[in-house]
């Protein structure tokens, strides 16, 4: 793994010789210039910088972001827990784009096999495809959540780039994608044909305005993800100007931090990536500072995990049964006694039991339970049922 990485040069960071004892700069086991590659023994999270940006559209230069983000991240303090984090340095650009893709896929696959959660700092968002491929060797179907102002479907006939990675994932064989969720899309950036395609695939999409009215609704969406891909252009330009595709509208900085903390808290999530951060457009390093704080919130969420995903033992849950009029199935809900979080049990064919056993227990909210009590099927229950069938 080490052969893919270049070490971190702390001499380029401001105040690196004065990091306090409880700051990330002192506590993270980093691959530093002149030092050894970190041991992954007992490591829970691994930071992976990626310098590849040749397929970023209108945002060339985002491959320089990892060290700018680190410069701010290392100055932050750990919370009330002891972190076990390694920073592996930056995956350098390969001679060709395919060389870079191979390196990223191989590194992330090795980390996943060791049950280490990669925190990817890109680079361009087409690297999400590499993250997806890393799960292929795990032989499991996965869910992806993208926080993005558009769907990035692009043209499936063209080569992979930062705005077409989703079509490549959908068309890839073997296909291990069970569900895709978009959080924060803005309608004027999305073609109506793309909206119809997402509906036909039973993927779920959530408009920015609807999400911002109830930020807590993001939690069950993200709780269902194995992989989260965060495009910084989903954040409003005034809060994150460091992006060539930045828009006046988007999430506020504190909302972006709330989303990443939800991601960290999810027992199911095993990788996350932050993409399209471009120092060339960044006013007063505002964007890289924000992304550093988003990563801090992800780490804080990770160390607040409840380990209450109800996949096997349900003795620690309150069970609710709701019968829907004129519907053949009753809906079974589980509420965690640890966290008060909710899940729905969606039935699936017996012959698909092994393939889909990770996906029939769908994270939801109390409002979904209320919807069922009002004799209506919750949308995410119906979408999952369609895919399981």
Distance between the termini: 40 Å
How many strand segments? 14
Q: Can you summarize the main beta sheet?
A: 10 strands, mixed
CATH fold group of the largest domain = Arginase, Chain A
Q: Class of the largest domain in CATH? A: Alpha Beta
Radius of gyration: 21 Å
Please report which band the strand proportion falls in: under 5%, 5-15%, 15-25%, 25-35%, 35-45% or over 45%.
Answer: 15-25%
Going by CATH, the architecture of the largest domain would be 3-Layer(aba) Sandwich
Mean of pLDDT: 93
Bin the helical content.
25-40%
Poorly predicted spans:
none
What is the number of domains?
A: 2
CATH superfamily of the largest domain: Ureohydrolase domain
Shape: globular
Could you say which structural class the secondary elements and strand pairing correspond to?
A: alpha/beta
What is the H/E string? EHEEHEHEHEHEHEHHEHEHEEEHEHH
Q: How many distinct helices? A: 13
């Amino acid at each position: 793994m080490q052969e893919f990485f270049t070490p971190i040069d702390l001499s380029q960071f401001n105040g690196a010789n004065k990091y306090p004892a409880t700051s990330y700069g002192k506590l993270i086991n980093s691959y530093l210039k002149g030092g050894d590659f970190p041991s992954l023994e007992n490591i829970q999270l691994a930071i992976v910088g990626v310098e590849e940006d040749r397929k970023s559209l209108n945002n060339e230069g985002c491959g320089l972001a990892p060290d700018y983000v680190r410069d701010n991240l290392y100055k932050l303090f750990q919370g009330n827990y002891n972190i076990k984090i390694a920073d592996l340095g930056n995956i350098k650009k390969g001679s060709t784009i395919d060389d870079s893709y191979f390196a990223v896929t191989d590194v992330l696959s090795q980390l996943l096999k060791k049950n280490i959660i990669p925190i990817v700092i890109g680079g361009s968002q087409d690297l999400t495809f590499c993250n997806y491929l890393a799960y292929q060797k795990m032989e499991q179907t996965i869910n992806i959540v993208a926080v993005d102002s558009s769907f990035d479907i692009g043209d499936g006939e063209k080569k992979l780039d930062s705005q077409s990675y989703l079509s490549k994932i959908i068309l890839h064989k073997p296909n291990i994608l069970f569900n895709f969720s978009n959080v924060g899309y803005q309608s004027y950036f999305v073609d109506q044909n793309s909206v119809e395609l997402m509906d036909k695939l039973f993927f779920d999409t959530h408009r920015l305005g609807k999400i911002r009215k109830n930020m807590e609704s993001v939690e069950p969406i993200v709780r269902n993800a194995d992989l989260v891909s965060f495009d910084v252009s989903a954040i409003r330009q005034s809060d994150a100007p460091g992006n060539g595709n930045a828009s006046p509208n988007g999430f506020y900085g504190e909302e972006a931090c709330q989303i990443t903390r939800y991601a960290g808290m999810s027992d199911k999530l095993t990788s996350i990536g932050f993409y399209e951060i471009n120092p060339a457009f960044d006013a007063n390093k505002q964007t890289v500072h924000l992304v550093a704080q988003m990563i801090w919130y992800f780490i804080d969420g990770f160390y607040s995990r409840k380990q209450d995903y109800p996949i096997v033992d349900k003795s620690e849950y309150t069970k609710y049964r709701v019968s829907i009029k004129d519907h053949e199935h009753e809906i079974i809900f589980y509420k965690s006694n640890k966290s008060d979080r909710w899940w729905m049990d969606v039935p699936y064919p017996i012959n698909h039991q092994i393939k889909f056993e990770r996906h029939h227990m769908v994270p939801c909210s109390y409002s979904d339970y209320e919807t069922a009590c009002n004799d209506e099927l919750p949308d995410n229950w119906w979408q999952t049922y369609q895919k399981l069938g």
